[in-house]
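Hi U.,

Before I forget, here's the chain from the pilot set. I'm dumping it here mostly so it's searchable later in email.
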Amino acid sequence: MAPATDCPSGLFQFRPVERKDEALLADWLRRPHVAEWFPGTETQLASIIKHLNDDWIRVSIVSLGGRDVGYLQCYEADREPSGSWQDQPAGTRGTDQFLAEADMLGRGIGTAMLRQVVDELFGEPETTRIITDPDTANGRAIRCYEKAGFRQVGPVVKPWGTILLMAQDRPQKN
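Structure:
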């Protein structure tokens, strides 16, 4: 049985980031609970904006009940330009996300959002695995991802630091 949450599944909307969202994203990236794990507001913002027209990554504003509440990016791991995920199976999708409002943390909202994202990504027939890569010290995110069904694969050193690779594989049909 799924744990209780303030947010039933299926209620999140994901819309593409647009240039008009730059100020909103900059504000969110400066918030202490976000900046701790996504440091360097200008660098992070530039990275998001540069992906607006890429076809291997989707950058989205997450809304709940008509209110913008967070950021999500989903990408094709084997097409990621740095080649950081070439060791993953074909059909692997990666995801990075944050909730913008500190008062939404610890209430199951992030878990519900991730469960919806996972369901949507596995709804794409080519998706075989979904990965995420929190900082090894980000216990809150790790617990959230585990509640959403991700399992720890292990710590991995990447150019941006040591991360905990976490994954979900497509459920096998009986």
